[in-house]
Design a protein that fits this description.
- The protein is mainly α.
- Among the domains are: 239 residues, no CATH class; 67 residues, Alpha Horseshoe (Serine Threonine Protein Phosphatase 5, Tetratricopeptide repeat); 67 residues, Tetratricopeptide repeat domain (Serine Threonine Protein Phosphatase 5, Tetratricopeptide repeat, Alpha Horseshoe), CATH 1.25.40.10; 85 residues, Serine Threonine Protein Phosphatase 5, Tetratricopeptide repeat (Alpha Horseshoe), CATH 1.25.40.
- The protein contains 37 helices and no strands.
- Helix 27 runs antiparallel to helix 28 and helix 33 runs parallel beside helix 35.
- The longest helix is centred in the first third of the chain and has 25 residues.
C-alpha cells in the first residue's frame, strides 16, 4: 500500500495506466469470473449448522411468521435485512440451497470489485491485485460457503458502498447539493450495512482513518461530519451487546471472562488472524478454544507487542511505515468487536473464527497487493515477478476451491473439523445428530459419547445420547444419561418426558408418572407428556385420571389420531359411550384406515344397540385388516345371535368365528362361545354343544362365573336343538 498525504499523490497509479487498463469494466468482470471459478464447489453445496435456525426452519422465512415479525420482533435477532433477503429468495426458489450459495458468491465478488474501486480512490498501488488477493484468500471461504454468513457478504457490500460515497464527499470541499446527496448515500448505506450485520459499527473509525490517509490529518470538521455515523454506531453497538447477552443466551461461565483474560484473548486473536492471512493452514471450522491463564505474565505479551507495533509505526512516520500503519490500524479497528472485549455467543466454542476477520483482512491483503506491485515496478525482472504473482493467485484460488469443498454438507464439515481439532465437543455432538438423522445410530452414539467425555456437563449431549440408547433398547444406559442431563438442567421438560417414557418401558410406571408430571409442571401445554401420562395412568387402572390427561392432550393437539383413539377407548371402558363414539369418529376422520378404531366404534354402537351401524363398522375393520380378531368375533356373534332375522347369516358367522378361534389358538372362552352360537345358527348343534362345553371348561378355570352361567344356559338350548338369539 502506498500513497501521498494529499489527494494529488496519483503519479504512481498513472504508471500502470494504458487504454487496456482504462477498461475498468473488463477488469471487474475478470475479477468476478476468477472468484466464481474458485467457488464452483459451493454452487452444489447444501445447508450447514445454523442455516437451520436462520433459514430452513425459521418461522419468519418459511412461515407462519413473515416480514412483519422480521422487522418488528426479536425473531430477526439483529440482522433483519439479511432475513429479508432470505425471505425474498425463499419466495422465489423455496429451500433449494444453490440460489442461496450463488447469491453469497456474487455478493463476495461484487464486494471485491467495490474494494478495488475504494482502494483506487485512496490511491493505493496495486488496488486490483489487493482486491483479488482478498477475494481469493482461503480464509474468506467460511464467510462465502456458509449460507448464514450472507450476514458478512451482504453487509460488506454496503459497508464498502458507504466508504465509497463518503470518499466522494471528502473529495468535495464546497457544500453543494451533490456533496450532500453523496453524504446521504454514504449514511444510508451505513445503516443498511448495520441492518445486515452490526459488526460494521466500526465504520466511522475506518472512515476517519481513510481521511487521515488522504490528508495526513483529521480536522474537526471531518469529525463533525462523522457524528451521525458515530450515533448510529453507538445505538447499534448497544443493541448488539444486549442481543448477544439476553437474546442469544450468551450468559454463564463460558462468557464470564475477567478483564485481564479479555486482554489476553484480544492480543492472541490479533496475531492469530494475521497469522492465518500469512499462512492459511490449518483452516478449521471450529478452532480449539484457548485456555486463558491471567496469572501468567507472558500471556499479555501478544497484546503489548501489537500496541507497541502500532505506536512505533505511528511515531516513525516514514514513507514505508505510513501504509503499514494504515493497514495495521484498519485491521485492529475492524477486529475490535470480536476481540473478546464484548460477549459473543460463538465464544462458547472458540474465541476465534475465520468469518470474524472477513472485513478486517482487507487491510493487510491490500497492503500485500501494494507491496507486490511496488516491488514489481522497481525491479527489472518484472516477467518473473508477474509469473510469481500469477502463481500466488493460482495457489490462493486452488486453496479456496479445496477449502470450499469442506462446506459441502454437515458430515464433510464436522469430519474435517474433527480431523484437525479432535477435541471439538461441538463437532462430535452435531455430527452425532446428523448421523442419527441418517439412521446411523451406532456411529451417532460414538460421537455423543465423545462429546460428553470432552464436556461432562453438556446436558444436550447427555439427552441426545439417552434418546439414541433408548432407540436401541439399551434402557438402563439411556436412563443414566437422561438423569445426568436433568442433574445439569432440571428444567428440561423434554428430558423429563423422555426419561418417563424410558422408565415406562422398564415397567417402572410410578417413576415414569413422576417425570411426566414434572414435565407438565415445567410446560403445562406439553401435549406429548400429557398423552404419555394418560397412558401410564391407564396402565395403573386410573381411568378417570387417564381421561383427564387425554382430554388435555387432544385439546392441545386435536388432530393427533392416536390421542383421539386412546381417549375414545378410555371413555368406552368407563361407559361414556356417546363421548367415545364422537372421539372414534374424529379418529377415523384423521386416519380412515385404522381398523381398531372401526372395530371399537362398532362395539360402541353395539353398546347403544345400533346393530346395523355396528355391523358396518366391523365389516370396515375386516376390509382393512382381515385378521382383526375383535371384528371377526364380534361380527360373528351379531350374525349368529341377532334378534333381527334379516341380519343373521350363519355360514358367514361360522367362517368368521373359526378364523378368530384359529388366530387365538382356541384358548379364549369368549370366542369359543361365539363359535358355538354360530354352529347352532347353522343347525350344527352337536358341534355347538361340544364347543360351548370347551368354553365352559376354560371359563371355569379362569373363575369367570358370569360367562360360566351364560354358557350353561346356552348349552341347554343347543342340547334341545335350538340356537341362541338375543
Amino acid at each position: 500500500m502506498s500513497g501521498n498525504a494529499t489527494p494529488s499523490g496519483t503519479s504512481k497509479q498513472n504508471q500502470l495506466r494504458s487504454p487496456f487498463w482504462q477498461r475498468n469494466w473488463l477488469w471487474g468482470l475478470f475479477l468476478i469470473a476468477l472468484v466464481s471459478i474458485a467457488y464452483t464447489r459451493v454452487f452444489n453445496a447444501g445447508f450447514i449448522w445454523d442455516d437451520e435456525s436462520h433459514l430452513t426452519q425459521n418461522p419468519c422465512i418459511i412461515g407462519p411468521l413473515g416480514l412483519k415479525e422480521i422487522w418488528t420482533s426479536a425473531r430477526a435477532v439483529y440482522y433483519p435485512l439479511v432475513l429479508t433477503s432470505f425471505w425474498s429468495l425463499h419466495k422465489l426458489v423455496g429451500l433449494s440451497p444453490s440460489p442461496y450459495h450463488i447469491l453469497n458468491v456474487l455478493l463476495h465478488a461484487a464486494s471485491a470489485v467495490l474494494l478495488w474501486r475504494v482502494l483506487r480512490q485512496l490511491d493505493v498501488r496495486g488496488a486490483w491485485l489487493g482486491a483479488l488477493l482478498w477475494a481469493l484468500h482461503p480464509v474468506m471461504v467460511q464467510s462465502v460457503a456458509w449460507v448464514t454468513e450472507l450476514k458478512n457478504t451482504q453487509s460488506c457490500l454496503f459497508y464498502l458502498l458507504s466508504i465509497f460515497w463518503f470518499l466522494k464527499v471528502d473529495a468535495e470541499e464546497n457544500g453543494n447539493s451533490v456533496r450532500w446527496w453523496r453524504f446521504g448515500r454514504a449514511l444510508l448505506f451505513f445503516v443498511v450495512a448495520i441492518l445486515s450485520k452490526p459488526s460494521t459499527v466500526m465504520l466511522p473509525a475506518v472512515i476517519a482513518l481513510c481521511v487521515w490517509w488522504r490528508r495526513g490529518r483529521v480536522r474537526w470538521r471531518d469529525l463533525a461530519t462523522l457524528v451521525p455515523f458515530a450515533l448510529i454506531s453507538a445505538l447499534a453497538s448497544v443493541w448488539t451487546i444486549w442481543e448477544q447477552k439476553f437474546h442469544s443466551g450468551a450468559t454463564g461461565s463460558e462468557w464470564a471472562q475477567l478483564w485481564p483474560e479479555r486482554l489476553i484473548i484480544a492480543g492472541r486473536a490479533i496475531w492469530f488472524y494475521l497469522g492465518k492471512l500469512i499462512w492459511p493452514d490449518p483452516l478449521i471450522f471450529i478452532y480449539p478454544r484457548w485456555e486463558i491463564n491471567s496469572l501468567q505474565l507472558t500471556a499479555y505479551l501478544p497484546l503489548l507487542a501489537a500496541l507497541a507495533g502500532l505506536f512505533a509505526l505511528w511515531r516513525i512516520r516514514g514513507k514505508w511505515s505510513r501504509p503499514v500503519f494504515f493497514a495495521a490500524a484498519y485491521f485492529v479497528i475492524s477486529l475490535f468487536p470480536v476481540l473478546g472485549f464484548f460477549t459473543v455467543y460463538f465464544f462458547r466454542y472458540s474465541f476465534v473464527s475465520d468469518h470474524f476477520q472477513y472485513l478486517a483482512s482487507m487491510g493487510p491483503l491490500a497492503l500485500a497487493g501494494a507491496g507486490i506491485t511496488a516491488v514489481a515496478d522497481s525491479l527489472k525482472w518484472k516477467p518473473f515477478l508477474r509469473a510469481a504473482i500469477c502463481g500466488i493467485l493460482l495457489l490462493f484460488g486452488f486453496l479456496t476451491w479445496r477449502q470450499s469443498g469442506i462446506y459441502h454438507d454437515l458430515v464433510n464439515l464436522y469430519t474435517a473439523t474433527l480431523a484437525k481439532n479432535p477435541g471439538c465437543w461441538m463437532a462430535h455432538y452435531n455430527l452425532g445428530i446428523v448421523l442419527r438423522d441418517q439412521g446411523e445410530t451406532d456411529e451417532a452414539i460414538t460421537h455423543y459419547r465423545q462429546a460428553v467425555a470432552l464436556r461432562p456437563n453438556y446436558a444436550e449431549a447427555h439427552y441426545n445420547l439417552g434418546r439414541a440408547l433408548a432407540e436401541k433398547g439399551e434402557f438402563e444406559d439411556a436412563i443414566a444419561h437422561y438423569e445426568k442431563a436433568l442433574a445439569i438442567n432440571p428444567a428440561d421438560a423434554e428430558a423429563h418426558n423422555n426419561l418417563g417414557a424410558t422408565l415406562f418401558m422398564k415397567a417402572r410406571v410410578d417413576d415414569a408418572i413422576t417425570h411426566y408430571q414434572k414435565a407438565l409442571a415445567i410446560r403445562p401445554d406439553y401435549s406429548e407428556a400429557s398423552c404419555n401420562l394418560a397412558n401410564a395412568l391407564l396402565s395403573k387402572g386410573d381411568m378417570d385420571g387417564a381421561i383427564i390427561r387425554y382430554m388435555a392432550c387432544v385439546a392441545l393437539l386435536p388432530n393427533q389420531a392416536e390421542a383421539q383413539y386412546n381417549l375414545a377407548s378410555a371413555l368406552l371402558r368407563k361407559g361414556r359411550t356417546d363421548e367415545a363414539i364422537d372421539h372414534y369418529r374424529k379418529t377415523l376422520e384423521l386416519h380412515p384406515e385404522n381398523a381398531d378404531a372401526h372395530a371399537n366404534l362398532g362395539s360402541a354402537f353395539l353398546a347403544k344397540n345400533r346393530i346395523q351401524d355396528a355391523i358396518l363398522q366391523y365389516r370396515d375393520a375386516l376390509r382393512i385388516a382381515p385378521g382383526n380378531v375383535a371384528a371377526q368375533s364380534n361380527l360373528a356373534w351379531l350374525l349368529a345371535t341377532s334378534r333381527d332375522q334379516s341380519l343373521r347369516n350363519g355360514p358367514e358367522a361360522v367362517r368368521l368365528a373359526e378364523q378368530a378361534s384359529r388366530l387365538t389358538g382356541g384358548t379364549r372362552p369368549v370366542i369359543l362361545r361365539m363359535l358355538a352360537a354360530a354352529y347352532a345358527e347353522t343347525g350344527h348343534f352337536s358341534e355347538a354343544t361340544e364347543t360351548a362345553q370347551q368354553a365352559l371348561q376354560l371359563a371355569n378355570g379362569q373363575g369367570n362365573t358370569v360367562l360360566v352361567d351364560a354358557l350353561r344356559r346356552e348349552i341347554a338350548l343347543y342340547q334341545s336343538g335350538r340356537p341362541y338369539h338375543k
